[in-house]
Specification:
This protein is α/β, with parallel strands linked by helices. It folds into 2 domains: 8-107 and 220-231, 3-Layer(aba) Sandwich (Rossmann fold); 109-217, Rossmann fold. It has 11 helices and 7 strands. It has helices spanning 16-29, 52-58, 62-77, 94-97, 108-119, 130-134, 137-144, 154-168, 178-190, 204-207, 218-231, and strands at 8-12, 41-45, 82-84, 123-127, 148-150, 195-198, 215-216. The strands form 2 sheets. The protein has a 4-stranded parallel β-sheet with strand order 5-4-6-7, sandwiched between helices. A 3-stranded parallel β-sheet has the order 2-1-3, with helices on both faces. Helix 1 (16-29) links the parallel strand 1 and strand 2 (41-45). The longest helix has 16 residues, at 62-77. It is globular.
Amino acid sequence: MNKPNRKLGVLGGMGPKATLYFLELLLKRSPAQIDQEHIHTIVDINTSIPDRTSAILSNDIKEVSTAIKRSVHRLKSADADFYVAPCNTVHYFLDALTADPDVPFFNLIEETAKVIQSSGVKKVGLLATLGTVKSRLYQTYFENIGIETIEPSNQEQDQLMHIIFEIVKKGKSPKSAVAQLEAIMESYRAQGAEKIILGCTELPIVSEFIENDMLLDPLDVLADICIKYAYS
């Protein structure tokens, strides 16, 4: 097969475990047969970026935006030909992510919406942080293409935040969150969801212990886009 033609930049660290999970996905889904056929990947695991949900809810985005722009500059300086951010909530800061028009950026949420649209699904359930839900990152894209979004109830949102911040980010066993996540998924199914979006990049670390064909992981979508573009 041909070697990839483009270098990938990954703006990571949000959180670190989700970044590593994405990189593993990229390797697993790659068609490469030898080392030299894999995508040359430049990674900035920038753990100094402040919490995105807190910034959104407090409407104080300057510090996050500045940190993002610095990471984008580092990736460009390292000769990345395109870049992605394997974090859903950070897409609220799209102006900062796309501040440098010379380097293409693939929008995780937009690409996921395209996949849902092409599948013919008309109603989805969203599992995400409070920041992603409140900022309507997914809902806006879905509304524009005629897809209804089921949002978590207040209780379900609290449970999701606990799973994300108190279990996955703190390095506790993801299996301990499986029952909670499955209960929310069942609630969505009962409300008519045809697909359920794992709208936080920490959640696939839990859902890999769940067998359910309703789940759609945006990181899978992003990995496939990266592979297609890098080898084209």
